Amino acid sequence: MNLQQVFAQSDAIGKAVALLLLLMSIASWVVIVWKAWMLRRAGGDVVRSVAAFWQAPSVDDAAARVGGFDRGALVLPLIQATQAPAGGTLAAAGDRAQQLTRVLRDALHAIMGRLTFGQVLLATIGSTAPFVGLLGTVWGIYHALTSIAGSGQISIDRVAGPVGEALIMTAAGLAVAIPAVLAYNWFGRIIGRIEAELEGFARDLRELLSHKS
């Protein structure tokens, strides 16, 4: 029995479960491919951008240099956030170290929001896809039992389709969930390394500019 036969023999609920798993799989793989490309580029860009910053003679010159390496705008927002706020506002209240702590924290949160985009989707698909597949399994078994009860006799032909549908839904749910979970964990480790690099740079930048001022 192939997938087309299973899909053709299933009812509306079975078809809906199969289509939902298909959409979840497509969504997860789009995010996986996009994030793999984005994080691979981001890791190298952050290292090169930080190195370019410390090799520059001044902060203004460093911002120009970093712009040539920071294609994902992960380091440059931290540098731009250190510009002195307008006078007469609460943002300018307190000493320079406090101002830098606030603006660098906000910039870092915005950067991490972009880096972690898609992680919630992968976690959601990884945790719910097996249950969606289980729903298809339970419904397939129910479909098989009702088929037997309606026929009044046990027949392999009558239950083969629903049982095959049930088994395939179980496998499909796992096939959707496993790549999403693996990608979530893999991306989480990469994001953690990039976050540590950015936090270290933000801390060093704060120390440099607070002492300089």
Note down, in words, how this protein is organized.
The protein has 213 residues and is an all-alpha fold. The longest helix is centred in the last third of the chain and has 57 residues, at 156-212. Helices cover 82% and strands 0% of the residues. Helix 1 crosses helix 7 (156-212), helix 2 packs across helix 3 and helix 6 (119-151) runs antiparallel to helix 7. It has seven helices and no strands. The protein has helices at residues 3-9, 12-54, 59-67, 76-81, 96-115, 119-151, 156-212. The model has no long low-confidence stretch (mean pLDDT 85).
H/E series, N to C? HHHHHHH
How many strands in all? 0
Uncertain segments of ≥5 residues (pLDDT<50)?
none
Distance between the termini: 74 Å
- Mean of residue pLDDT? 85
Counting DSSP H or I runs of 4 or more residues, the number of helices is 7
What is the structural class? mainly alpha
Binned, the helix content reads over 70%
Largest beta-sheet details:
none
Radius of gyration: 27 Å
Short description:
The chain is mostly helical and 213 residues long. It has helices at residues 3-9, 12-54, 59-67, 76-81, 96-115, 119-151, 156-212.
Which tags fit this structure?
82% helix, mainly alpha
List the helices and strands and how they pair.
Blueprint: H1 3-9, H2 12-54, H3 59-67, H4 76-81, H5 96-115, H6 119-151, H7 156-212
